[in-house]
Amino acid sequence: MTLWSGRFSTSMDSTLWDLSQSYSFDQVLYHHDIMGTKAHVRGLHHSGLITEDELSVLLTTLDEVEAEFDRGLFVRSGSDEDIHMAIERRATELAGDVGAKIHTSRSRNDQVATTLRLFTRDALTQVAEGILALIDALRAAGERTPGAYLPGYTHLQRAQPVLLSHHLQAHAWSLVRDIDRLLDNRDRMNVSPLGAGALAGTSLPIDPDFTADLLGFAEPFANSMDAVSDRDFVAETLFDIALTGIHLSRMGEELVLWTSAEFDFATLGDNFTTGSSMLPQKKNSDVAELARAKSGRLVGNLTSLLVTLKGLPLSYNRDLQEDKEPLFDSVHTLLLVLEALAGAYGSLSFNAATAQLAADDPFLVAIDIAEKLVEDGVPFRQAHEAVGRLVGEAVTSGTSLLDVVGAHHDLARFIDLFRTGAALQQRRSPGASGPAAAPQQAERLNSSLAALRERLNS
Ligand code: ARG
Q: In sequence order, which ranges of 280-365 are alpha helices (DSSP H)?
């Protein structure tokens, strides 16, 4: 028997049941649904709709139901269409007559919106924590080989030498913005839909402020129709996750390159690499490839929800049930990738000698010679042109820029710039990649992270 059997003469066709049931994937909401239901029954008591004794029976019963889920002992009944109906059905079995009062003034529409917001709020916190752990791993990887440097690239062509710590912190900054975005979202979505009913509220004397407060929401909904039909918070979460995933895919791609024999800038630990079933010598960076690949499904999940929401009339439509699998999948996938990448960076050893050799490529000193000429009063365009000619000479003669500079007596003062690591020392401007500019950046990153941690725990 369904909860709406009063109006129907035959039972639901099994195909419709299979199509419409969501229990198979929404059980993960049990904790948050029970949390919402407890606040709801407290609200019923607060409004005089149930007695003190009834409240206490319902609260104890809901704890029992939660314990069944926690221990994996909860048994789904054939009529449990989703987690919300399963919990109400079981609570009613355990509590007896008073169970029939649980759903007073509530609809699954405000219930599911409340449950999903509670779930998402916690998920945003969890994801932000996972990102912070990855930032820690990135910074630690930089600190393990202090002073190490590598070529910095534009167009994947060697451009200027950069410090390893600076390079890894560039990734950290994109992750800082990701956390900031998640926390903005968490603030914005912290609104309670409970009390909106099916779509238009209720004639019963409920107090949505009271239940919002119990659930730690900043405020209750303003408009009941918006409350049950708004899934912006899911879309935003999927976007935040997708963008973070895209940042991780860029890091993954870089690890694939760095660990290739062609670059040979880094080696991942054996515990974070895989072998080949055929080729005995292989050591593959699957972790980095999967970090790169998983971003595809994160973007897919976002796209799927946006398309589901497009053109939906007000207010609740069953289409909205399709918000859950993308959300659960994106949260789960991102948490996994974050943890795996943090582990991978933890296992990373940077091959400083190879990377430095590449970064000491004499061509990378070209800009430093030009900038020295500028200091001597030569306009930059002329300096660029002059050094460009030296580069051209080296390329045509098949020698190095160092040899060409060495051959010109009037350029002798530039020879020093070719010393190992010398070019890096020149980079002093704020935010630049050089040892002189590094402490200020570390300080900025520290203070941004401290502010985010404080917000995260508030
Ligand atoms: N499982 C449903 C969902 O996730 C619950 C809401 C059903 N509401 C309704 N009016 N049929 O959206």
A: 286-309, 324-347, 352-359
Q: Which helix (H) or strand (E) holds 130?
A: helix 108-144
User: How far apart (Å, rounded) are the C-alpha atoms in residues 414 and 369?
Assistant: 6
Secondary structure letter of residue 279 according to DSSP: -
Q: How far is the CA of 445 from the centre of ligand 1 (A)?
A: 44
- pLDDT tens for 116-171 read 999 999 999 999 999 999 999 999 999 999 999 999 999 999 999 999 999 999 99
Name, in order, each residue with C-beta under 8 angstroms of 304's C-beta and a sequence gap of 6 or more.
322, 326
CA distances from 279 to 37, 107, 276 (A): 57, 59, 5
| Cα 153 to averaged position of ligand 1 atoms, centre (Å) | 51
d(CA 237, CA 231): 10
d(CA 129, CA 456): 8
Q: Which atom of ligand 1 is nearest to the CA of 82?
A: 1
The alpha carbon dihedral of 21, 24, 29, 34 has a sign of: positive
Residue 96 token pair: 């007896």
Output the furthest CA–CA distance in the chain (Å, rounded): 102
In this structure, the number of other CB atoms found within 10 A of the CB of residue 106 comes to 27
Q: How many CB atoms lie within 10 A of CB 385?
A: 12
The pair of three-digit structure tokens given for residue 304, joined into one six-digit string: 């799927």
**φ, ψ of residue 159 in degrees (nearest 5):** -120, -65
Strand, coil or helix: what is 141?
A: helix
Give φ, ψ of 219 to 5 degrees: -165, 160
Continuous segment of H or E residues that includes residue 56: helix 52-70
Contact 20, 103 (CB under 8 A): no
Tokens of 90: 């079981």
Mean pLDDT over residues 89-95, rounded? 98
Regarding the beta carbon of 82 and ligand 1, being less than 6 Å apart is answered: yes
Helix boundaries (H) for 189-285: 208-214, 224-229, 232-258
Tokens 């369904």 correspond to what residue?
A: 2
